[in-house]
Amino acid sequence: TETATTTETTTTTETTTISETTTTTTDTTTTSETITTTTETTTTTDTTTTTETTTTTETTTTTETKTTTETTTTTDTTTTAETTTSTETTTTTERTTTTETTTTTETTTTTETTTTTTEITTSTETTTSTETTTETTTFSLPSFLDLQPDTIYGVWNTFAGGISTLATESSSGAGTYLIGQSPDKLFDGNLNTKYGSRGNTISGISTVAGLNTGFYMTVAQCQPVLIGFRFGNAYNLSEREPLKLTIEGTNCANLTTCANWTLIYNGSTGLDIQASSLEYGQYQSISNSDIYKSYRFLITAKRNSSNIVSYSEVQLFGYSTQSSSSQNGTSNSTSLLVIQSGSVQSLWNTVAGGASTIATESSSGVGTYVLNQSPDNLFDNKTSTKYMSRGNSSNGTNAYAGLDTGFYVTIAQCQPTLVKFRFATAANTSSSSRDPTEVTVEGTNCDTLVNCATWASIYVGPTGLESIVDRSTYGPFQNISSPQIFTSYRFLVTAKRSRSDTVAYSEVELYGY
After folding, report:
1. Domain residues for 77?
2. Whole-angstrom Cα distance, residue 246 to residue 183?
3. Among 320, 347, 373, residue at a domain's last position
């Protein structure tokens, strides 16, 4: 919006004053002279006011506001007083997104006084210029890249292009990281945990402590391309923060002895601005289109002298290529598939081919699972824990409690193929009626499983628990006749042993390649 407003005002005042002074008293102190005058005044005022206003409005998407005010007042007083006041105002308004404010004020006042004639000249010029710009930038981060569990290792005394030297956990010493501050803390999603590495320094503060340290890890997605990252700081106003690093990629099978690292980034960590609270630094983009399944991060500079280099989180961003195809896998060539950390999600009121409905943890109610008995317990290698889901039942025993419940899960390796699985019964001797006996298994390559509508059925049949009486016991393997490559799988319970208040089971093992 651009608005120009011009106002010209001319005021002419003619004053004729006939003064008769009856008493004049003058009292003088060190720096002041006071004149008391009794005046009888006759005043005639002739006022002419002319106002001319021109307004022009023009609107665009960008608005900038500028206000300029210029005021001139001249007053000349003698026996005859004549006053002219001229005010000219121009206002232009324009607005965008960033805010800058500049205000300039100039005031000049000159006063001259004599005994009989007083001439007062006051000149005030005020210029106010305001420019307001507010800039809001919304940046959508790329997709996260996840890590394969147990592939993160701390390194020290390691340089770009060279072989990695593994660091160890210890309370002191060169080549160690602090106890409870291992590199896997960088990928736990918690800014309150941290990775602290000493590097070549045994103890004390120095300029080299923590340099040439870092970590390597393997990405869970298939054929991953790393295109960006973010670091999280570990302390408020810390001198230990890493400022520069190198990033390399490789497809080596053995990362400890790997000598084939390709440099893809050499620059800032994004923590250049020292923060007063725990937060993520600036997103750093990587100009990369090459596929590497593993990456190595090495710290080359830090903020200041310190005893370690420390940071709380590292987020990886990128994309992957994943295809689905039939495989002729057999149980003879399979191994236990590794579950991607944090990917297990409880479901209820969900049927094969449909969208997933997320269940929640609660002490009671429809669409909930029992407190501390989440589906994560299915993959903790303990038959003493269990997953118990109520489904459409709020309380009591019935024929439908726990049906159409289950879970979905993502496999933490490239192009996983599920070949067979087995269930284990729950521990409680009174819970045999809760055993799931029939299940459907589906696969997908959706990036977001909550909204995924492309689930392919790969198994419909028994869980293997239908004839198992003992508690905390695995049933036989159930084979998938036509295995396919899928990144994620969904298990839905369709039948149970008998009437019960929930469906409960302790473990699920997935085997494939």
Report:
1. 1-12+49-138
2. 17
3. 320
